[in-house]
Structure formats: C-alpha cells, structure tokens
Amino acid sequence: MLLLLTSIFLLHLTAIILLLISTAHNAWWIGKDYCTDIWKHCFYQNSSCEDIVYKDKEEYLQTVQAGMVLAVIFSCCGLLIFICQLFSLKKGNRFIFTGLFQLLSCLCVMTAASVYTVHFHYNDQSNGYGSSYILAWICFPLTLLSSIMYVILRKRE
After folding, report:
1. Are 73 and 64 spatial neighbours (Cβ–Cβ below 8 Å)?
2. Whole-model pTM?
C-alpha cells in the first residue's frame, strides 16, 4: 500500500511540476526569431519581451491563461486534500474529493490547450508549437490518470 501511495503521490507531483512549467515557460509557439507563450512575446535578436496583443482574440487568450492557472490551483489543492485525507479518511473509503479536484484540473488543461489550438496560429505553417504547449497536452492524460487512480483507490491500514 505504501508503494502505491508513493507512486500516486509522485504522479501527482509530476503533473503539478509539468503544469507549472507549461504555464510559466515562454515556449507555446516557436518561430525562427521569436517565441510566444500565453503571457509574453519574446524576440531572440534583441532579448526583449512584450505583452501579447491579439486583436479580437483577447477573450480566447484570457481563457487559455485562466484555464492553465486554474489547472495548477486545482492540482495543488488536490494534493493538499490527498495529504489531509490520508490522515482523516476512514478505512475502506475512497479518495473521491481528491479525484474530483484532479478531474477539474484535467478539464481546465484540456480546455486551455484546445482553445489555444483552435484559435491561435492555425494559419501559420512556417513555425510550430513549442515545448510548453506539448507539456500542457502531456499534463492532460497525467491528470486524468491521476484522477481515475484516486477514485479507484481505497484507504487501507
């Protein structure tokens, strides 16, 4: 049981770290001389960054930003709830509340990455998606798997 709890804890911690990196790192879209994340637009030549301005797409950008931030918050809260439930949950009960928070995190990541995919850079064939974008999509199955494992897991002595 200890090995199972440790592996689930490490999976959850890995998902949180990857969520933080994908939210904060400036590599959602990579160009030849620039990179863009959900917060800034940075240029390689003069090492400067500026705020992103998308005319008539501002609400989509805010949706992506909010989705990623909420995913990090839900996942961190889920980890804290899991730790609390380890000590307060009765024998035989399931970690439903923790699984629910991980599922909410999973849905937020999926929504943010989907909105970014559909509404940004869809006509730009010369550049490509960056590592943060890929990490966001990797976080989706990690948080989904974690939420399923929490719901299935029962507390034992």
Report:
1. no
2. 0.88
pLDDT tens digits for 46-103? 777 777 777 788 888 889 999 999 999 999 999 999 999 888 878 778 888 999 999 9
10 by Cβ neighbours in 10 Å (0-12 / 13-18 / 19+) ranks as exposed
Q: How far apart are CA 139 and CA 125, in angstroms?
A: 25
Residue holding tokens 């709830």? 81
Residues 6+ apart with CB under 8 A from 26: 35, 36, 37, 39, 40, 42, 49, 132
Say yes or no to pLDDT of 132 above 70: yes
Q: At a CB cut-off of 8 Å and minimum separation 6, what does 15 contact?
A: 75, 102, 105, 139, 142, 143, 146
> Across the chain, what does the average pLDDT equal?
88
CB 141 within 8 A of CB 109: no
Distance CA 2, CA 23 (A): 31
Q: Which of 72, 128, 129, 122 lies closest to 101, judged by CA? A: 72
